[in-house]
Amino acid sequence: MPDMFDVVQSEIILGPSLFWRIRGFTDTLFQKVSIIVLEAFSEFGHFMFLFFVGLELKLDSFFRTWKRATCITFFETLFSGLLGVGLSSFLWSMVAHDGIKMTFRLFMVVNISFTAFLVLARILVELKMLTTELGSLPMCIAALYDGFIWILLALLPHFSGSGIMSV
């Protein structure tokens, strides 16, 4: 099993998901200044890792797989969109605040749709599959898919401010 799973487990346990919810945990373990420095080093490390992954990738493999990747991305977007709309319809009845229902649906679609691009890249690097065609196809799919989802995320504030999208 790749080491990335151990990293994800430790981030869940030590990160804001679990232990940081315990009152006084962060104050006891870290000073406020050190958290800012640790977050900066973390972001820099992620940036450098993705930079080196980008250096390893072969663009010709992306160009060979773009047709399959585009088709798979389309169906992946369709599936996650339907899943997000279905889940948002279920959750809307629970929260039922005043607001634009379509914005809530789009928000749910965007949240369900993000891929863990960094995790995928790290797993493919550890398994030495990044430069193979089998490894470049999921990277190309994830890049296309995340690009589309980032565009939807950028459009989300526009839809929430106007009543044209209300359903």
Describe the structure.
It is a single chain. By secondary structure, this protein is mainly alpha-helical. The protein has a domain of 109 residues. Helix content is 78%, strand content 0%. The protein is built from seven helices and no strands. Helix 3 packs across helix 6. The longest helix has 37 residues. The termini are far apart. The C terminus is likely disordered.
User: How many β strands by DSSP?
Assistant: 0
- Helix fraction? over 70%
Task: Indicate the proportion of strand residues.
Answer: under 5%
Number of helices: 7
N-to-C SSE string, H for helix and E for strand:
HHHHHHH
Radius of gyration, in angstroms, nearest whole number? 19 Å
Principal-axes geometry comes out as flat
Q: Structural class from helices and strands?
A: mainly alpha
The oligomeric status of these chains comes to: single chain
Average pLDDT taken over every residue: 78
Give the low-confidence spans.
Answer: 163-167
The largest β sheet comes out as: none
Cα separation of the termini: 46 Å
Sum this structure up briefly:
This protein is mostly helical.
Please specify the SSE layout and strand pairing:
Blueprint: H1 3-14, H2 25-29, H3 32-56, H4 59-95, H5 101-113, H6 117-126, H7 133-161
Protein name: Cation/H(+) antiporter 18
Domain Cation/H+ exchanger transmembrane: 12-160
Organism: Platanthera guangdongensis
Jot down its keywords.
mainly alpha; Cation/H_exchanger_TM; single chain; flat; potassium transport; 167 residues; Na+/solute_symporter_sf; CPA2_transporter; Cation/H(+) antiporter 18
